[in-house]
Amino acid sequence: MPDTNLAPTTALDDAALDRLFRKARTANAWQDRPVTDETLRQLYELTILGPTSANQLPGRFVFVRTPEAKEKLLTTVSSGNQEKTRTAPVTAIIAFDPQFYEHLPRLFPHADAKSWFTGNAAFAERSAFLNSTLQAGYLILAARSLGLDAGPMGGFDSKKTDELFLAETGWKSTMLINLGYGDHSKTFGRLPRLGFDEAALLA
Amino acid sequence: MPDTNLAPTTALDDAALDRLFRKARTANAWQDRPVTDETLRQLYELTILGPTSANQLPGRFVFVRTPEAKEKLLTTVSSGNQEKTRTAPVTAIIAFDPQFYEHLPRLFPHADAKSWFTGNAAFAERSAFLNSTLQAGYLILAARSLGLDAGPMGGFDSKKTDELFLAETGWKSTMLINLGYGDHSKTFGRLPRLGFDEAALLA
Lengths: 203, 203
Fold this sequence. Notes:
Chains A, B: This is Putative NADH dehydrogenase/NAD(P)H nitroreductase SAMN02745194_04749. The structure is a homodimer. Chain A has helices spanning 14-22, 37-47, 67-74, 82-87, 104-107, 121-145, 158-165, 196-199; strands spanning 59-64, 90-96, 149-153, 172-180, 200-202. By secondary structure, chain A is of the alpha+beta class. Chain A has one domain (26-184): 3-Layer(aba) Sandwich (NADH Oxidase). The first copy, chain A, has a 4-stranded antiparallel beta sheet with strand order 1-2-4-3, with helices on both faces. In chain A, helix 2 crosses helix 6. Chains A and B meet through helix 1, helix 2, strand 1, helix 6 and strand 3 of A and helix 1, helix 2, strand 1, helix 6 and strand 3 of B. Strand 5 (200-202) of chain A pairs parallel with strand 1 of chain B.
């Protein structure tokens, strides 16, 4: 009998591939349709399942959705990202916890993974940056999986964001992702992509 | 009339969410079933559609699948990752091109984005590292979308990998991802995850 605790081995259908990749687009404008906290919790529960190195799970997520918090966040956002961030139902601050390894005795109990990072802040921070960015990729595709649209952004002042939102936790922000239901009448044309032979090698 | 060039706005069904997230697992052993170059090209075509900041697309991908190339790669892989890498039909080297910005006049034609990076190697490298790691996240979920299993790994010597595989291109490796059809009889139990209240905030 197949183990039903494991993933089905078939590829997704065309509609799912379209939703995730082929017809999915970064949203720049939004429908007047809220994103509930329940949906944000579903989004988190999918995102957190994606793999990270030694189950480090360094990614941290601040879901900014009240007008007061949004106003505060807008003081850190570049001019080109203002309007879409102001109007997005939610903006997620993607961050990492530089002390993520304190959780490893629970998250990765079969090895002393915490000791790989204690006293090696530069190594720990690189690992946290890499793995939390993987988790940002999972979050973008988890959002699309739930019928949401995402608008990832690099144009913001991460230091100021840390001061305003993360001072108590010590987390470090790396990017912002607007979340909502996109107004596709305002989606830009798809930009060109690099061909396989420009960005990949077979060895 | 709805624009059929844009993504359907519905959430994926349970089977798709299972395949991508809820029942998906990192593979540690593999079925004796090849991954064709055609499948690797499909994987690339999905991966490259994921969003990157200003369409930078810094990610580069070396698909190692011949015995000779695999032997060479194994000289860079940590002992704990040897067997699963040796037996994987394909191991993808995830890398970035530090000179990615040379393509921006074509990839992001409506602004002089190339000038943001020229003469600022540290800023360019951080952006390439972040965005190519997002692309690695897309690749892992694109693999799952195509019915493949993925096994991402950090335990390898990136400097030696660069010398052996990337000397001609100047690309820089950041992680490895085994690809194939997993032998789920050998999948480990799911490790714990952080709860919403440990890794997320509502603001």
